[in-house]
Design goal:
409 residues, alpha/beta, 7-stranded mixed β-sheet, 13 helices, 28% helix
Length: 409
């Protein structure tokens, strides 16, 4: 089979830089080109141990690793490759490609650096799935083999300018010059890969330029978005730090630990306005840690806390520590009901609640559906719990006399 390395991807082969930011829109060929690079290195004479990494275990099977296998088949070289579990080995010289999922199926994180010994090349597929810059740094720091060629490929479709990849590597959608010494930036579109695409599909994409310019710019040309398509709460705003007046006040709590943060939010209501303040937003907190954080925030047994009912043991731990905690009402339609309730209010966020700001910006509908994504929603879930609908003795805001907690209904 004839195969051509597209010109924009040539730096992968000749550049001596360490990092390669490879972005693009639909049909740009970046996955196939990166797969070809890894397969060529696998079959080469020089020592090569490449890791294809993706954030979740369930998605690793549909990553560039699959493209590598397909290319090996079309190039008729599978007879030289042994495949065992998550490893692909060149039987002639022992070169390897290994898959690595950062987040396992049960939600736990893989051990730092596990399985990455002696690695020469690291490819992070769909890098925008990584929830934070810290997760990237952990993975990158575990990849430090000496005496070998060392390259890190970061592949992604650009999302929002609020994403950590843009904040770290770009300025207003353009590569940040401070990284030029050891970073290559490669951005391609379908125009760089036209010879491998169906002409009808190209015509379809180009029609979108007139029909939906925003879709064309983001999905087809791979431009960074100033905002998020399908944002759920697009009118929340940053308010004053200490709003004056008399409020109904309650605290919403969403439990987390390893991957998801524990989120505690103060929710103040006055008429049709909500004032939100992030008090806790952190991973790795035990219940004992959370109790100490809550005491530091000045929360007492007089304050009403509405928590995720899915963790009755954690709720009981907080009760035994003296806190007034009740389970939130949760049902099959509770997420949509909570979103609808929140949309009834004019919402102001505390200026120092940066994680809440990010969630409000990034929380959006799944494309083509009326269902929200299950991401960027930990503080928002806590707020939903605080506003949960009354049912079976559970708690909710009352419309009666002013007071600083909830009344049982």
């Amino acid at each position: 089979m004839d195969f051509k390395i597209l010109e924009p991807y040539a730096p992968m082969f000749w550049s001596d830089k360490t990092y390669y930011l490879i972005s693009g829109g639909r049909g740009s060929g970046k996955s196939t080109q990166a797969a070809a690079y890894f397969l060529i290195k696998l079959m080469g004479e020089e020592y090569f141990r490449g890791v294809v990494s993706r954030y979740t275990q369930k998605s690793i099977k549909s990553s560039i690793y699959r493209d590598i296998l397909d290319l090996a088949d079309s190039w008729n070289i599978k007879k030289f490759i042994k495949i065992e579990g998550d490893e692909m080995t060149n039987v002639l010289n022992g070169n390897m490609v290994i898959t690595h999922a950062m987040k396992l199926q049960d939600g736990t994180m893989t051990a730092k650096g596990k399985g990455l010994a002696g690695v020469t090349h690291l490819l992070i597929d769909e890098a925008t799935e990584l929830p934070s810059e810290e997760e990237f740094i952990k993975l990158n720091d575990s990849f430090r083999a000496k005496g070998t060629e060392r390259k890190v490929f970061i592949l992604f479709n650009p999302t929002s300018k609020r994403h950590w990849i843009h904040k770290r590597f770009y300025i207003d959608g353009r590569p940040n010059p401070k990284w030029f010494d050891d970073h290559e930036f490669i951005h391609t579109t379908y125009k760089d890969n036209e010879e491998n695409l169906d002409p009808k599909k190209i015509q379809e994409w180009e029609r979108m330029k007139g029909l939906d310019p925003e879709y064309y710019a983001h999905h087809i040309e791979g431009q960074w978005l100033d905002g998020i398509v399908g944002r759920i709460f697009d009118n929340w705003q940053v308010g004053e730090a200490d709003p004056q007046g008399e409020f109904d006040t309650v605290y919403g709590l969403d439990f987390g630990f390893s991957n998801d943060p524990t989120a505690l939010v103060e929710v103040k209501r006055k008429n049709n306005k909500l004032y939100l303040k992030q008090l806790v937003y952190s991973t790795g907190l035990t219940n004992a840690d959370l109790i100490q954080q809550m005491k530091k925030q000045g929360i007492t047994n007089r304050d009403q806390i509405i928590a995720d009912s899915a963790e009755p043991k954690s709720i009981e731990d907080l009760k035994r520590a003296g806190f007034n905690v009740k389970p939130a009402y949760k049902g099959p339609d509770s997420i949509q009901a909570g979103i609808n309730t929140l949309k009834e209010y004019e919402v102001f966020m505390h200026p120092n609640s940066s994680d809440l700001h990010d969630e409000a910006f990034l929380y959006c509908w799944k494309q083509g559906t009326d269902k929200p994504i299950d991401d960027h929603n930990h503080a928002i879930d806590a707020i939903r719990y605080a506003l949960s609908k009354p049912k079976g003795g559970q708690y909710a805001f009352t419309n009666g006399r002013k007071r600083n907690n909830f009344e049982e209904l």
